[in-house]
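User: Structure tokens for this complex, please. No commentary.
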Amino acid sequence: GQSLEQPSEVTAVEGAIVQINCTYQTSGFYGLSWYQQHDGGAPTFLSYNALDGLEETGRFSSFLSRSDSYGYLLLQELQMKDSASYFCAVLNQAGTALIFGKGTTLSVSS
Amino acid sequence: DSGVTQTPKHLITATGQRVTLRCSPRSGDLSVYWYQQSLDQGLQFLIQYYNGEERAKGNILERFSAQQFPDLHSELNLSSLELGDSALYFCASSSPSGGQEKLFFGSGTQLSVL
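Assistant:
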């Protein structure tokens, strides 16, 4: 089966940089996805890494190391609106549906 | 707005009852996924349909069932409800060309079982 581990909470101040780690164990691996969910809202897609390395999208970057079964989401120039839960996710063994980690709650203070 | 529509937004019912949650995927999307989100369990994958056929099953209880209709909308039926079924239920869809890694979620149905 699939299991993902990520910290439950992270705190930071505005303007700072924060890294949210995710380690995974899967019986078949296709890639690592990241989603953001604001309180009371729906999860929204942030990024997907199928290959090793860093993918950058504006203030957010995502990294994957397949050999270490590890990835992270890097958020730069933090803003108050970045306060949300962040989920890493991998596809199930059949490659048809996403399985999510339990999420990391990021709190950004001024 | 993701383009995925879920109804109702809120549902309050009693233990032992049965409810139906409805989802319309984005135009052109063939896959529909159902997820349950509770405080202690995170986002749990329940079931996936693709073009009317069940494609994958997750942690879906036997009391729960789903189907996808010819117009591609989907319904999740929850029966013999228990207090522990209180949760936020999300539906998501994915593009046939975009891959299953990028899901578009509806705004969810908040189910409260009293």
